[in-house]
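# step 3/5: fold
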Amino acid sequence: MLQLSRPQIEALVSVDAETAEAVRDAYRAICDGRANLPPVGYLGFPAAHGDCHIKYGHIAGDAVFAVKIAAGFYDNPAKGLPSSTGVVLVFSALTGQMQALLADEGYLTDLRTGLGGAVASLALCRPEARRFLIVGSGTQAYWLARALQCLSPGAEVAIWGRNPDRAAALVARLPGTSVAPELEAACRAADVILTATPASAALVRSDWVGPGCHVTAIGADSPGKQELETALVARADLRVADSLAQSLDHGEFAHAHAAGLIGRDDCAELGDVLSGRVPGRRSAGDITIADLTGVATQDIAMARSVLSRAGGTQ
């Protein structure tokens, strides 16, 4: 059995075009019938400002299936600890035998989420979009910025955080990015807004978002989280989810759905847009929103990429 540590995994996969394409295929697999995705397991730890997700599944034709355990404890940086951790277990889809233990400490989740946010944003934004705003200054903001700079080399990336010092420290690690000092003004000026926070109340207001803007929300991945004003979700011309079942149940779209403002037929899935089965943006003035709750096919794609580059089971 292959056992890899986080440093070994980091040496094998990072932000690059091949890994981004694996993420795109992970989204397409949900919509073309290849994916077997059971419901997500969730544990909440509100007193510790943390949560844990268990995601698992199989893509038809793959020699392996994966089970991922990932936790986020968002007060950890103040304690000198990383906010995310986790492990991915990989098994043979032919014998059930364990093939690999990827002790990634949350790295693969952070990487695939950043790539997913960039893939969704670039698929739905206006072709000429250049001004990207990341709302949040944590680990995920770092990977979103890295992915955007890789997949859209002309991107102008600004970062806003509730803690200005933390936002400045992040920008110092990311050449070519800048600090957005004020959220409302930054939202009004942005072509694309990406939210990556554990917020439980809306940060981005509807009247801050103008025609033609695209918004990708990745923070609301469990009950009780929200980053966008419900009126903004209801107002959008196009709503796209990585998994519609997850988004309407516990994602960013869940609030508008629970209020009766949107229904299942008012949304599309990202895999269908990426494959061309469903049209994406229809006009330059459309407001488009992607709600990414995180799907197990992404974790399978990451595990498959690691094993392929390590020379293990593919």
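# step 4/5: annotate
The mean pLDDT is 95.
# step 5/5: archive (pending)
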